[in-house]
Design goal:
The protein has 362 residues and is of the alpha+beta class. It has eleven helices and ten strands.
């Protein structure tokens, strides 16, 4: 396969670079950054043009992700709305839902979070127990969600809840657009070992959802969720940094190494990380246009690679690794790479069953 960029891909990369050079400011972040992206036509490039996007496919989105990473652009607070909620609403929502939700997602006016994982249903998401019961024209929700990014900032969440009490596993689950700012929603930050609290627990007690906020059909939420999970893995496996596209990069590690004089074995590890990074990039590019499992493959490889980059950085820093700096923060966060967005074991199962055709162990 010829992986050399086409003239159209070169032109697109140059267009993105030019726009970022003219519009990226050091303090750009949050809703303001999403608003600026949307105004420039870059708010949701993968969305269809009729919804404010550019209709980009996987290859174009990979170019876009690479250039955002290279420029140091912030990870958009609107990422869950743009990358996960929006595509689910476009694919499975009604026309009224698209008119209601998509413009405010695109502009950054409304921030979204994801209410999927539970204390007893993380990687095994089909085991969720949060319940939603229809009473009149409202669904009443009770349950607990965990590992929710942006819960404190979010206006809406994409929620999976069991609406058929007698159902098991994937059946009887419904996908909702859940209003976050209401009584019955208790958000508790989770303090991480890197000192931050980027995740939250969310307790739902008698919280309400209008019946018109069901995305897709009642009881068919698992099919809608697959759209979200596929986009999540794609989002987490793009960019230049070692932490899902953000954080320190391999180039940062090479710069660090030049200043501390690594030994022979450490130089070999640096070379291996450089080679592996290129192998991951080229394999991902090869799969992008032909294989829907590219995201799982890329995430599986890139997450473990990112952990090794951060481990070597701490080793090179020596006692300096005990002092707070970007590398120590990245190293403390890096164990989450092989857990969040689908564990290493989940990605291996997906590839084994769907790519290799291996039988499922029953």
């Amino acid at each position: 396969m010829d992986l050399r960029p086409t003239p159209e891909q070169v032109s697109l990369r140059q267009e993105i670079q030019a726009w970022l050079a003219a519009n990226l400011e050091p303090r750009a972040e949050g809703r303001d950054w999403q608003r600026r992206l949307a105004a420039g036509g870059w708010g949701a490039p993968a969305w269809p043009a009729e919804h404010g996007g550019r209709g980009f496919g996987p290859t174009e989105m990979a170019i876009f992700g690479e250039e955002l990473g290279r420029s140091g652009a912030p990870r958009a607070m609107a990422q869950i709305g743009i990358g996960w909620a929006g595509p689910a609403i476009i694919a499975h929502g009604t026309d009224e839902q698209r008119r209601r939700f998509l413009p405010s997602i695109l502009s950054g006016e409304q921030i979204w979070c994801q209410l999927f994982s539970e204390p007893n249903a993380g990687s095994d998401l089909a085991g969720l127990s949060t319940r939603a019961e229809l009473r009149g024209d409202r669904w009443i929700v009770d349950g607990q969600k965990i590992w929710t990014s942006y819960a404190r900032e979010a206006d809406y969440g994409i929620l999976l809840a069991r609406t058929d009490p007698a159902s098991r596993r994937q059946s009887g689950i419904t996908f909702f657009a859940f209003p976050m700012r209401q009584p019955g929603v208790d958000i508790r930050p989770i303090r991480q070992m890197d000192g931050r609290a980027t995740f939250n627990e969310v307790f739902l007690t008698g919280a309400e959802i209008p019946d018109g906020h069901v995305i897709g059909q009642v009881g068919d939420g698992w099919r809608v969720a697959i759209t979200t999970l596929t986009n999540e893995r794609t989002s987490l496996s793009t960019g230049a940094g070692t932490l899902w596209g953000s954080g320190p990069s391999l180039e940062d590690l090479l710069s660090l190494a030049r200043g501390v004089h690594p030994d022979r074995l450490q130089r070999q590890r640096l070379a291996a990380l450089k080679i592996e990074a290129e192998a991951i990039r080229l394999t991902t590019w090869r799969m992008l246009s032909t294989n829907p499992l590219a995201a799982s493959m890329s995430k599986l490889a890139a997450d473990q690679w990112g952990q090794r980059v951060n481990e070597l950085a701490i080793e090179l820093l020596g006692m300096g690794g005990l002092v707070e700096n970007p590398w120590t923060e990245a190293f403390l966060f890096s164990p989450a790479l092989t857990i969040g967005g689908g564990t290493t074991e989940v990605q291996k199962n997906i590839l084994a069953q769907r790519a290799l055709g291996l039988p499922r162990d029953r």
